[in-house]
Recover the amino acids of this structure.
């Protein structure tokens, strides 16, 4: 895709799994990378509110046509990680909830007004080329820098 690659500096390791000490069970961040990064990018937690992550984790057995269920203990650890880093987490500076109805619980980042606004000028041909809006890495070389 010509000139569309967005060079986002990979704010090193922000979302990267930090190496677990040998012998210790993986924590929520590692599990999130492993389990939620298996089929697609491990999407940035700061782009959805806590209520959306809860709904997504509750519904993993029927996840966009796939069964993405994990062990209950793993699901809890992943959810804890997501909630601590969600757009509305106490320390968050995320803009991702801009214009989002407080009653709405989007199950997709790509359904949020913020995301749609940020992507409103992208030509149809570019969307066709990356196949799915959810294919962030089709255009972004990394989304690790998206903290706000
Ligand atoms: C078995 C494969 C699979 C696994 C594992 C999986 N997903 Fe997904 N996920 C999908 C598919 C398929 C879609 C829809 C992609 C599309 O529309 O192109 C999706 C979409 C999503 C979206 C919406 C993306 C958007 O459009 O904004 C989110 C958020 C998401 N997944 C979160 C998770 C989380 C959190 C986990 C880990 C607990 C997870 N996924 C694990 C297959 C998977
Ligand atoms: C068709 C290409 C394309 C796809 C697919 C795409 N983006 Fe983007 N995205 C862009 C472009 C172009 C911009 C605007 C350039 C910029 O602001 O750096 C942008 C901007 C953004 C921004 C705002 C920029 C900022 O600095 O805050 C965020 C956040 C973002 N994208 C996240 C995502 C996520 C998450 C996904 C997948 C769910 C995704 N994008 C999918 C092309 C794309």
């Amino acid at each position: 895709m010509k000139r569309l690659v967005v060079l986002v500096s990979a704010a090193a390791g922000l979302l990267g799994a930090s190496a677990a000490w040998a012998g210790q069970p993986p924590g929520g961040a590692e599990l999130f990378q492993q389990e939620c990064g298996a089929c697609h990018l491990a999407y940035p937690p700061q782009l959805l509110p806590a209520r959306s992550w809860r709904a997504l984790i509750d519904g993993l057995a029927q996840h966009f046509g796939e069964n993405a269920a994990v062990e209950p203990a793993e699901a809890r650890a992943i959810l804890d990680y997501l909630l601590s880093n969600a757009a509305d987490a106490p320390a968050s500076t995320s803009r991702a909830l801009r214009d989002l109805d407080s009653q709405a619980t989007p199950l997709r980042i790509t359904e949020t007004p913020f995301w749609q606004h940020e992507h409103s000028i992208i030509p149809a041909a570019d969307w066709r080329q990356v196949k799915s809006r959810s294919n962030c890495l089709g255009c972004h070389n990394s989304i690790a820098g998206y903290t706000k």
